[in-house]
Design brief:
Helices cover 38% and strands 17% of the residues. It is α/β, with parallel strands linked by helices and 265 residues long. The protein has one domain: TIM Barrel (Alpha-Beta Barrel). The longest helix has 21 residues. The radius of gyration is 17 Å and the shape is globular. The model has no long low-confidence stretch (mean pLDDT 98).
Length: 265
């Protein structure tokens, strides 16, 4: 089994497929992808994201991306209500991003929204999917103050250093590796992957963004998670099949609401 642990089915460019998103799902299944976690980035578009879960093997998250300024949360009620759906298996993506926007007022709003997400994660006992960039200390402090050591979550599309990854593991978080690991300038990330235990890793596409080598320049899609998995397997010097099995086991251990037998058809 291979899982694309983070993609945005509602944002894919599916013009190459006669049957739209189903074509992209079929293409992923043909290369061994069995499940897809499609990610919410704002509550107003959540229904569009959740609609994909009508398909076998597709599950969803519910949350507001830290750069979605207009949607950042100050209260939990709407998130709690939407995230209570049967096929919502995680809260997020949420987190902090101090890289793309340096406005201090936005950072305050991001921290408040992140705390709301962590609180709802605790209430619903769902893992939190975290986007973090240039905000290591604040991210870890909020996880410690509002998160649950029992539930934990995932640092998605990880690009920070080994020290942060190690701290996240101590807080019961997995590290999710995207196509960035294949990029020429990502040697520091590759070194982090070498150091991390296999039991801490899952893989993702973050499609339609960040297509891995050798697909750079193309729109990313879930089938390319196999390329990410192969690259990580090569770094760890194990067979692809072993990496697929371990990463899928890690995924299902963390996202315990997901039924492993619910696979793409």
């Amino acid at each position: 089994m291979l899982v694309d642990s983070h993609c945005h089915l509602d944002k894919l460019d599916v013009s190459a497929y006669e049957n739209g998103v189903q074509g992209a799902i079929d293409a992923a299944r043909e290369v061994g992808v069995n499940q897809i976690l499609t990610i919410s980035v704002d509550l107003d578009s959540f229904e569009n994201v959740y609609a994909f879960t009508e398909r076998a093997g597709v599950i969803a998250s519910c949350g507001v991306h830290p750069l979605h300024k207009e949607g950042l949360l100050s209260s939990p009620e709407r998130l709690f209500y939407l995230a209570s759906r049967d096929k919502v298996v995680a809260i997020g993506e949420t987190g902090l991003d101090y890289f793309y926007d340096k406005e201090p007022e936005l950072h305050v709003a991001q921290r408040e929204s992140f705390a709301v997400h962590l609180d709802v994660s605790n209430q619903l006992k769902l893992p939190t999917i975290i986007h973090t960039r240039d905000a290591k200390q604040d991210t870890l402090e909020l996880i410690k103050s509002h998160g649950s050591l029992e539930i934990g979550g995932v640092l998605h599309c990880f690009t920070e250093d080994y020290a942060m990854a190690r701290s996240a593991l101590d807080l019961n978080y997995l590290i999710s590796i995207s196509g960035i690991v294949t990029f020429k300038n990502a040697e520091d990330l590759r070194d982090t992957v070498r150091k991390l235990p296999l039991e801490s890793l899952i893989v993702e596409t973050d499609s339609p963004y960040l297509a891995p080598v050798p697909h750079r320049g193309k729109k990313n899609e879930p089938k390319y998670v196999r390329d990410v998995a192969q690259f990580v397997a090569d770094i760890k010097q194990i067979r692809l099949e072993e990496l697929m099995e371990i990463s899928s086991t890690n995924f299902h251990r963390k996202f315990s609401k997901v039924d492993p037998s619910d696979v793409l058809l």
